[in-house]
Amino acid sequence: MNTDRFAVIIPVYNHEGRAKDVIRGALALGYPVYVVDDGSTDSTYEKIKNIPGITILRHNTNKGKGAALKTGFAAACRAADWAITLDADGQHDPANAGNLVNAVHGAPMNKGRRPIIIGMRENMTAVDVPWTSRFGRKFSNFWVWVCGGPLVRDSQSGFRIYPLPESICLDVRADRFQFEVEILVKAGWSGVPVYEAPVSVAYTPGTERVSHFRPFIDFMRNSGTFMRLLFQRIFIPRFIRKKL
Predict the structure, then answer these.
(1) Is the pLDDT of residue 121 over 90?
(2) Alpha helices in the chain (DSSP H)
């Protein structure tokens, strides 16, 4: 079995200004590219629909980033063993995917379990980075660990490599941004190793960047997800919890 087959998954939602450039950067990697339009209401689909060489999957309504990633996983696992995920808002440089691929090749497995690789964003303490991003990262890092996941430095980065189909089998319940922290916790429960590799991040003043992260609402959702996971970790035996 060839275990070096990679595919790129890009969830998009109202990213009409940046999606095309991100997709073209992803195509330059030479892997199949799956773009999941999560119910965009702007001109995103019109701007990307004729880009050659990509597979577009569409949700009729907005279901959330996690739901878009699940749709992408289901489609990509037919053609790939690994999914490279990155955001469509322009903060990630697709060329940095090489750092993550190199980390896959150099990372040890845990009892045959292939790893998740997180693109650890560098310079997240710079003045251009929104305070909500700095605080959210530290908050999530701590609670991922408390809930039984790995101790990592960037639990909120969307630039990752996931092993397929193992990541689908982790059965993550969250369908929005909370997907990305819940899957790390469930990876910890299941013995799936998690490693990090450095990537650049762009938070340049004056440039267009559309983020759908809402600090208060998503903080409350994150808190609810962590409380659910922590309850399960404390009160449900590990051999049962792994199946939840």
Answers:
(1) yes
(2) 19-27, 44-48, 65-76, 97-106, 131-146, 166-169, 179-190, 215-235, 238-241
